[in-house]
Each structure stands twice: as structure tokens, then as C-alpha cells.
Amino acid sequence: MILNKKTIFIVIISMLLSSFNAYEMEAAKRKAKSRRSLENKRTEQLKILYEHFPLYKEWKETEIYPYSDFEFLNNFDRTSVFEDYFLRKKLIENINDWLGVRYRYSGRSKRGIDCSNFTSVIIKETLGKVIPAGSATQATLFKKIDDFENLQFGDLVFFSGRNRKSKRIGHVGIYIGNGLFAHSSTGKGVIYTHISSGYYEQRYRFGGRIIKEDLELAVK
Question: Average pLDDT, stretch 212-218?
Fold first, then answer.
């Protein structure tokens, strides 16, 4: 059977459309799978948060927020920008929104983000200020807190890199209390980690408290 040009054209178009539709369906499946994976990772991380801070689950379910009472503020360094209750609430919400995002060197989006860009983005979303990326750079910007026991909510926490004995800063996260901090790890992306984890406990160097005056200088 000899096909005319019109028939051949229709057959080719039909094949192309079929191939395109199959590609679109496969792309949609991959996207849905990726979204489910992200949600599962986020759920796992929220369990860690609730384990260390049961009040946060109550906060989500009843709109009764922790860290708003006088007892908390009595032990809080009021020079910190996170003396403001609404900023404390906003910080946690912003961190939780990034949970599960994969690590990507020099990344600064939901497609992937590294440790110092994560802290920079969270500060921007929470405080409206843009600080430079680079964990070693960020380590010079804020009030230094040497003793781990003196860390408080909202402090940045700085660690050495692969060499635990090195004094060179190679990693940064955001401390939220009870030994827990949020960060973008190379292996798991944006997660909550307890500082007593052997790897980070051995590499912890100091904290950085974000006070208003330092923040204004840091963004200039």
C-alpha cells in the first residue's frame, strides 16, 4: 500500500504527539514522586522538632505559641533580635518551610541550597536583611558566643569542616534551643540535628548572636 504525503504527515504528527504525551506523563510522575519524597522528608524532620520541643506541635494544632512567656524572656539575652516573639515564631515557620530541600553547593533556591546560603536566606525571610554567604564570613559578623551552654534561640552555630581539629570554619546552622539546630547538610539537605551528634559535637567552634547593631553593619 502506497501512502500519500498527507497520510504520512498525519502519521508522523500522531507519533510525535504520542511521544510528547508519554514524555509529559513521565515528567509528571517524576515530579509527583519528588514532591512526595520532599513531604516525607519534611514530616520526618518535624517529628524531630516535636520530639525536642513538644510545644511546637501544640503550637501548630492550637495556635498557642511557645517562647512567648516571661519565664523564657527572663533567661534571654535581650540584645538579640529574637527577643521579639513574632520573629521567633517567623523563624521557625521559615525553617520548616525549607525542610527536606536537598543540598546543593552554592545553591540558593528550593532546587538546592548549601549551608551558608540557607542561613542567609532564612535571615532574609525572617528579618528582611541580606547577609553574605560563606560560613567563614558569617562567623565574623555577629557577637561571638564561645560556650555552647550560653547559646540561645536564633544564634548561628559554626563548625569546622571535615578536619575536626581545624579551627577553620566550614559549616553553619541556626540554633533553636535544647541542643537542636537547623542546617543544610551535604548528605541530607535541610534538616534538624542535635548538636550532641558525634560529628557536630566534635566540630562545634562557637556561636554568633544576631543583635540589631551587628545586623545593620553586616548588610552594608
Answer: 78
